[in-house]
Prior knowledge:
By secondary structure, this protein is of the alpha/beta class. It has helices at 7-18, 73-85, 94-106, 119-134, 188-198, 221-234, 253-261, 289-292, 311-324, 329-350, 376-379, 384-396, 417-431, and strands spanning 40-44, 47-50, 55-58, 112-116, 138-142, 155-156, 166-167, 180-183, 202-207, 210-211, 217-218, 237-242, 269-272, 283-287, 356-360, 363-367, 399-400, 409-410.
Amino acid sequence: MTPDTDRNLQLFQRAQHVIPGGVNSPVRAFKAVGGTPRFVSRAQGAHFWDANDKRYIDYIGSWGPMILGHGHPAVVDAVQRAVLEGFSFGAPTEREVELAEAILKLVPSMDMVRLVSSGTEAGMSAIRLARGATGRSKILKFEGCYHGHADALLVKAGSGLATFGNPTSAGVPPEVVQHTLVLEYNNVAQLEEAFALHGKDMACLIIEPIAGNMNFVRASVPFMQRARELCTQYGALFIFDEVMTGFRVALGSAQSVYAKAIPGFEPDMTVMGKVIGGGMPLAAFGGKRAAMEHLAPLGPVYQAGTLSGNPVATACGLATLHEISKPGFHEALGRKTQTLVSGMTRAAQAAGIPFCGDSEGGLFGFFFFDRLPQNYATVMTTDSKRFNTFFHGMLERGVYFAPALYEASFMGAAHTDADIAATVEAAAEVFKTL
């Protein structure tokens, strides 16, 4: 492939003239791994084809929504029928009610839910609601957890224990994040000290139960249990960000996984996206009735959206939820994911490469490291150069993983045993070059 024949390169060069960085979301630019982004021309099942018509086994699945694979017949049919009825109305529809009912049935910790258009919007709105419902200002998040690009959440940890964050993006004034507390993930001692110092002023704690933006790092059961206890003790709302994990790691989402280990466990509020839209722009936040009734038009906390509950997106989401609710769906998905991770692990061991991986349902991650990291600081010490070499080796062999060490990967129902075997075989070849 030469610059004169590489359509991906040509499109990227064109894009950089009219779109900042040539992409509409930063990770797509391949900045972390180097090289030219792949411009997708079409997708079907577990595969997509780039602008050069090269096929790839797809393990990002639009960063999670495509749990059924691309172009699932039942979902395509639902969307086509919805399109014929109208794109958007700016008025309520029955389908919005049906989707809300379906979500609440599967996630019983929520009494009510509000549909929005993006995970960022859902997370931002949940925090505003928590502040409005509690009358408090401070929020607590964890380093390495991503909750969208709202200003108050674009922060990192300070230099000392239980210190307030500094902005990690230009354009975010320090005073905007002065009430955002950032702690180390899985650190119970920091958590206890933070509540001892600031608990009475804390509106909410927001957490990814399985963090997917420092690759794949799950919250330990003791850490999660203590977080729930402290929120209850101090009257802060406990918010589960399940944009990535919702309906992907289990039919009841990640909170149902923790409920198996912690009797009676549930969050106060939940943020969702990705799978509930099936690939369309759709997200949601919900919680107990007492908190949700603070939202306008019932209460004083304002939130609105012109395209919220879009009729085409809700059709796509409803069809997706219907398919993944079929008996045995997540069990089969989880087995596929485990087969892939264990196969890659064995191949790395055979090549003498430090490697570890973890998975839950259709979400997985791996590190070139001798043990699974428990927090962001440890993730930052893993071998990023080796990952970058691995990424490009797999890309050359037609396997597309997330183009950054710090992103989790996604298995879909459309991935076949042959796809998984081909991926493990390609990984074994690449490991030998490392």
